[in-house]
Amino acid sequence: MPENRVLVTGVAGFIGAALAGRLLADGHAVTGVDNLSPYYGVALKRARLAALERHPAFSFLPLDLADRAAVARLFDTRCFDAIVHLAAQPGVRYSMENPAAYIDANLAGFGNVLEGARRCRPAHLMFASSSSVYGEATAPFSENQCADRPLSLYAATKRANELMAYSYAHLHRLPCTGLRFFTVYGPWMRPDMAIYRFAEGIVAGHPIPVFNRGQMRRDYTYIDDAVEAVVRLLRRPPQASGTAPPYRVLNIGNHQPVELTHVIALLERHLGRRATLELLPMQPGDVHATCADVTALREVTGFVPSTPIDQGIARFAEWFLARRAGRGPAVDEAATSQEGNPCA
Ligand SMILES: NC(=O)c1ccc[n+]([C@@H]2O[C@H](COP(=O)([O-])OP(=O)(O)OC[C@H]3O[C@@H](n4cnc5c(N)ncnc54)[C@H](O)[C@@H]3O)[C@@H](O)[C@H]2O)c1
Fold it and tell me: Key word ATP-binding present in the record (predicted)?
């Protein structure tokens, strides 16, 4: 499927920038939109964009997807073969501090993208959901399990996105795939996420807050694996079958959950410093364990994420140290108050 025109929303974000880079390398033309939300360091977002903007087949439009008229203008003037909607207000804990940000970006923003897609009729609309839709379901999480007990507003907006997309797939035969990402990490990752914040604390010699005393297991997915899964899915839109609309949700996870304390030990090893832990109770909205059943992803794509956590953390640590040493783009401004929340 060479030289497709792909719209990537949230292109200045962690997953969006990595995906756009890969799509450009594969020969696609990428239009990226992002409102450069100040939720975390805008310098990091600009640095991700700067790398993409060197590519002639990339164009960037600053755009707030919650602005209905502006999104309508985008789809009036451009058409896309595929859309990958990654823009969102992420973070579990922050959804208690600033619920409006989630309503605007995740609900209104996605509604506007769906309307644009209805008119522009891409061959495939993919959108980011999250492992958090499973709440405290029994792991491993399979797409057939109930996901209607969200423990945070963030999770509720992601589940709502899935239902909104289903209705468009049903009513308008718009092929839609919901991507249930499981804690994606690696170089260029979000500074509000636990691995990044732990690294900052370890290197600075500050105590790092560890919730539920580290007794949490997460299915950590390396960024290149997440991108590989999305790229393979892009060219495999779901088909309508009888009365079933062209719609599916898929887990994108590593299916090998790891204890938080093990991740901290790996960070210590690869950063070359000992951590001081501040052991704290469980925080509201968080879940004890995540683990993806990736049977469906394997069936559709022939691929499942499998980068070992040791390798992934080593690559992250190398990038993190280079960045701090000034060999990468400018060190971020402070992230928001997402203290060590491992659940994205
Ligand atoms: N990183 C993970 O572990 C993870 C896990 C599960 C789900 N997700 C989902 O995957 C997607 C990408 O996550 P990420 O980690 O790259 O997050 P990110 O915050 O780095 O990227 C999201 C981007 O969307 C932009 N954005 C926010 N609101 C916008 C709006 N109204 N209009 C336009 N742009 C807007 C932000 O500026 C940001 O650059 C998100 O939908 C997130 O909820 C991520």
Answer: no
Does 175 have pLDDT greater than 80? yes
Q: What per-residue confidence (pLDDT) applies to 224?
A: 98
Residue 333 has pLDDT above 50, yes or no: no
pLDDT tens digits, 237-259: 999 999 999 999 999 999 999 99
Q: Is the CB of 186 under 6 A from ligand 1?
A: no
Q: Which atom of ligand 1 is nearest to the CA of 66?
A: 31
Helix intervals (H) in 173-216: 194-204
Residue with CA closest to ligand 1 atom 43 = 90
Token look-up 């969006």 returns: 16
What CATH number is given for 5-184+222-252 in this structure?
3.40.50.720
Q: Give ranges for CATH 3.90.25.10 in the chain.
A: 185-219+255-291+306-324
